[in-house]
Amino acid sequence: MAKKTIGIPRAMFYYVYFPAWKTFFERLGFGVVTSPKTTKEILDAGVREALAEACVPVKIYFGHVLALKDKVDYLFVPRIISINGKTIYCPKFLGMADMVKSALPNMPTVLDVTVNKKRNKLSLFRGAMELGRRLGKGPWATFRAFLAGWKVHRKYDRLLKAGYTPDEAMDYMLHGKPLPVKQEEEGGETLRLALLGYPYTTHDSFISVEAIQKLKSLGVKVITAEMVSPSLLKRQAGKLVKGIFWTFSDITSKAAFHFFENAGEVDGIMHLTAFGCGPDFMVDKLMEIEAKKRGGKVPFMTLMIDEHTGEAGMLTRIEAFCEMVRRRKEAAV
Amino acid sequence: MKKVTFPHLGTSVVVFNDLVRDLGNEPVVPIRPNKKILDLGVQYGPEFACLPFKILLGSYLEAVERGADTVVTSGGSGPCRAGHYGEVAQKIMASAGKELEFIVFDSIYQKPLEFIRKVNRLNSAKLSYWSIVQLVRFYWRKLQALDRLERTSHRMRPRELKRGETTQVFNQSIKWVQESKTMGQIDEAEAAGLKAFDVIAQDPAADVVKVGIVGEIYVVLEPASNLEIEETLGNMGVEVNRSIYLTGWTRENAPGGKKADGFEEAAKPYLPEPIGGHAQESIGHTVMYARDGYDGVIQLAPFTCIPEIVVKTIMPRITREHGIPVLTFFLDEQTGKAGMQTRLEAFIDMLRRKKRTREEATYARVSGD
Question: pTM for the whole thing?
Answer without folding.
Answer: 0.90
